[in-house]
Amino acid sequence: MVFDRFDDMHTQFVYERFRLPAAGWRSHMVRSSEAFVKMAKLGVAYCLIPRLMIEDELQSGALIDLCPGDGITRHLYWHHFTTESGILAEMTKACLNHARQVLRSNTD
Q1: Quick one: pLDDT at residue 35?
Q2: Could you report the per-residue pLDDT of 71-87, keeping only the tens digit for each?
Q3: Given a cut of 70, is residue 30 above it in pLDDT?
Q4: Domain that holds residue 43
Q5: Same domain, 56 and 85
Q6: 45 and 83 housed in the same domain
Q7: How many other C-beta atoms can be found within 10 angstroms of the C-beta atom of residue 47?
C-alpha cells in the first residue's frame, strides 16, 4: 500500500532489502494511516506502518512484523509560519513537545 503517488517508502524498502526493482509494482493507494492498519488487519495487504501505531496489534498477534528489527527511519518536519502567534504558536509548541516524548530519535 502507498499513501499517495509520491510515497516511495515501500518500493525503497523492498529494493534495499531484496533488490527487487521498483518499476511495475501494483499497489493500493490508501490516504489514511488508520486505513493502512485496518487493511493490514483484514489481511488485504502488507505495508509499512509506524510501530507506535500498532504496538497493541503486534503484542496481541493481530499483526506480525515481517522483517523484525529492520525498519525505516524518516525525518519528520513540522511546517508552520514563522510569524505565528496565539493559538497557532501554542499548538506548534504542544505538537513539538509531544513528539519529543513519544517519537524515537536517531540517537536512541
Answers
A1: 93
A2: 888 887 777 777 778 88
A3: yes
A4: 9-60
A5: no
A6: no
A7: 19
* Rg (alpha carbons) of the chain, rounded to whole number: 17
Domain count, the chain: 2
Q: What is the pLDDT of residue 41?
A: 95
Q: What is the pTM of this model?
A: 0.72
- Read off the C-alpha cell for 15: 529494493
Residue 29 phi, psi dihedral angles, 5° rounding: -95, 115
Same domain, 22 and 55: yes
Tens digits of residue pLDDT in 34-68:
999 999 999 988 889 988 899 999 999 999 999 99
Same domain membership, residue 48 and residue 25? yes
CB atoms within 10 A of CB 99: 12
CA distances from 92 to 32, 82, 95 (A): 22, 11, 5
Residues 80 and 51 in one domain: no
Q: In this structure, are 14 and 56 located in the same domain? A: yes
Cell 505495508 belongs to 47
Spatial distance between the Cα atoms of 94 and 78, rounded to a whole number of angstroms: 12
Report the C-alpha gap between 107 and 49 in whole angstroms. 21
